[in-house]
Write a structure and sequence with these properties.
The protein is mainly α. Among the domains are: about 100 residues, no CATH class; about 70 residues, no CATH class. It has 27 helices and four strands. A two-stranded antiparallel ribbon has the order 1-4. A hairpin with a 6-residue loop joins strand 2 and strand 3. It is globular, with a radius of gyration of 26 Å. The N and C termini lie far apart (about 60 Å).
């Protein structure tokens, strides 16, 4: 008994340490580039501002003050017939930011700062927009999505009792997919992901806790399932088919008349929110605004099929799944395990009968949800999604796919100690590979061009080494160096290490064997990120498609290239080594012309000057290829 109590305490400490470390990458970092003018975010930001400042969905004033952004419609006014700008987005995530922005504007007003106008200075406009966006992200997206991960871990405790597998799953879902990147955007992707899984989890738990008596399943839980399933559509229009799957599952479990009424009532609340928004924004409660898009080419696309969604395209499905630069499974290798959930879980004979039945039902529902997500994403006319980190239209999938993978791992682990070590090693290695492959990318910036073939090796690693890292919470307190970002990055990696690399009630031999499996799995999962790009571009050097981001980087002037240039200019040609060092940095940044000019200013041979170590590795890779 004492040993079991000590083990439980050890597990709880491990979990608390994991989430304490994970706080920093979720809350201390603010990837933001105004010059990119992200329509997915700013259309919502402008609308939230208009709701609070003017009590309207019309964003003419915001467009005039901050500039035009895409994803807008021009809708004639009911009063004067003149066209006005409104966003073409779902409503719910935009409404969630209203309390945060209202409080922000009131607090700023106490200090004499007010919403800028078109006549305000550029500094005032940019400062207000940046700070307001940060506040909306923090309270409407980042906080709810982090709390969801806490729930996610607690929910899995009965179905996945192994702490290593459970924390590896949370790390892979929260920091090893584009979940982390889209938590740092004032948008709806991760909110949709969270609401979809919550609807599933509440239904599954009710079924598992009362397997034989539906009358014991709470009416309030049925209401929540309906509310959350409907919220999926209120967050993302293309979540309709996922909401249908979750609603059917809910009705099969909450099948008493009063429960069904409660479930339907919860869903109708979301229907009312969407219909009211569409009526106010577009004049028709039953029709989204996609056909009214100001960008005519986008409007034409959305007139095809079901608002731009047609039968799944096999080529799109393949690319969304396996493309090395943005595919769901290739960038998050932990999720490959989710594909085994049906054969592994359905054929398993381990565990109590009730638990086996619950896992089998879960496997079927999870597979149907993922099938709906992938099918719809592959059927969207603009399935690539533009500038993204990973597949934007599959951003709802991480928790669902991760939980399916966890069921597979737990099924193997239950077969015996040797199987458990292998399962822990594979889970840990693939979680590490996933966090590095896409989590590190999203921690640097959350929106990348389609032409980038290897985001980790041709964007994240060069940018991190060169010091092009984003805003961070240290700036609130006057700490303007890049150090706090690197601390947050180290905390993310440490959180994964706490999850998968520490011993957990196992022999030394089993632990060492698990570490070997971790290394092998991590190497296999990371290998695709360093394969030769199709366009022949170099690895560990900035790809041409992202070199322009450095020129508009925020905050400017604290990267290593800028600092090295200041150092070289300070001493001039009488000290050649700083110029050669600067040339190395310029080549890592893809600035071959600048590097040549730097070397000519050295006015001496490089014999006594060392090569930049990162640059040496980059050149070694280039020579091997």
């Amino acid at each position: 008994m004492r040993r079991a109590t000590q083990s439980a305490r050890g597990q709880n400490k491990r979990v608390r340490l994991f989430f304490a470390l994970a706080l920093l990458p979720f809350f201390a970092v603010f990837p933001y580039l105004r010059a990119v003018n992200n329509p997915n975010e700013f259309a919502r930001v402008f609308t939230t501002m208009a709701l609070v400042d003017d009590g309207t969905l019309v964003i003419d004033e915001q467009v005039q003050t901050y500039g035009w952004v895409n994803d807008l419609a021009r809708v004639p006014s009911k009063v004067d017939g003149k066209p006005h700008y409104v966003m073409v987005k779902t409503a719910l995530s935009t409404y969630l930011g209203v309390p945060a922005y209202w409080a922000y504007s009131k607090v700023q007003g106490l200090f004499g700062h007010h919403h800028p106008t078109a006549a305000s200075s550029p500094e005032d406009k940019l400062g207000w927009l940046r700070s307001a966006t940060w506040v909306m992200r923090l309270f409407a997206v980042q906080l709810p999505c982090f709390l969801f991960l806490v729930f996610f871990e607690r929910y899995m405790r009965e179905l996945v009792p192994d702490v290593v597998l459970r924390l590896a799953t949370v790390a892979a879902a929260g920091m090893g997919t584009n979940y982390l990147a889209y938590t740092h955007i004032y948008a709806s992707h991760t909110l949709y992901a969270s609401s979809a899984f919550l609807a599933f989890a509440i239904t599954e738990r009710a079924m598992r806790k009362s397997p034989r008596d539906p009358r014991r399943r709470k009416v309030s839980h049925a209401f929540l399932v309906g509310l959350l399933a409907g919220a999926c559509v209120a967050f993302e229009y293309h979540a309709l088919f996922v909401a249908v799957v979750l609603s059917i599952f809910g009705v099969l479990v909450f099948r008493r008349p009063l429960q069904i009424v409660a479930l339907a009532l919860g869903g109708l609340i979301d229907v009312a929110i969407v219909a009211h928004f569409q009526w106010r924004a577009y004049g028709n409660p039953l029709k989204p605004g996609h056909e009214l898009l100001e960008t005519q080419s986008f409007a034409v696309i959305h007139q095809r099929g079901l608002f731009g969604v047609q039968f799944p395209n096999p080529d799109a499905l393949k690319a969304l799944s396996m493309d090395i630069g943005f595919g769901f499974f290739s960038m998050s290798p932990f999720m490959w395990l989710a594909l085994l959930v049906i054969p592994v879980v359905l054929l398993s004979t381990h565990g109590p009968v009730t638990l086996r039945r619950s896992r089998r039902a879960s496997a079927i529902v999870l597979s149907l949800v993922l099938l709906a997500m992938f099918g719809v994403a592959a059927g969207i006319m603009e399935w690539r999604g533009g500038w993204t980190v990973g597949p934007r239209y599959l951003a709802g999938a991480p928790p669902t796919a991760a939980f399916a993978a966890a069921l597979v791992l737990q099924t193997f682990a239950a077969r015996g100690p040797a199987w458990r070590s292998v399962a822990r090693g594979i889970a840990g290695g693939l979680a590490i590979a996933s966090v590095l492959s896409i989590g590190l990318v999203g921690l640097v910036y959350d929106t990348l061009p389609e032409a980038l073939p290897r985001p980790l090796a041709q964007f994240a690693l060069p940018f991190v080494y060169l010091g092009f890292v984003p805003h961070h919470i240290g700036e609130w307190f006057g700490w303007n160096s890049t150090t706090p970002w690197y601390i947050a990055c180290a905390a993310m990696l440490a959180a994964v290490g706490v999850a998968v690399l520490l011993p957990a009630a196992e022999s030394r031999r089993a632990f060492l064997f698990r570490l070997v499996c971790v290394v092998v799995a991590a190497g296999a999962g990371l290998a695709p990120a360093f394969t030769r790009p199709e366009d022949g571009s170099a690895l560990l050097e900035l790809h041409p498609s992202v070199q322009g981001l450095a020129t508009s980087w925020e905050p400017p002037g604290r990267d290593r290239i800028t600092l090295a240039r200041e150092d070289a200019e300070r001493y001039g040609p009488r000290r050649p080594c700083p110029w050669y060092h600067l040339a190395d940095l310029d080549r890592i940044g893809g600035r071959a012309g600048d590097a040549l000019r730097d070397e000519t200013r050295a006015k001496a041979m490089r014999d006594r000057c060392s090569f930049d170590p990162y640059f040496s590795v980059m050149e070694a890779l280039r020579a091997r290829r």
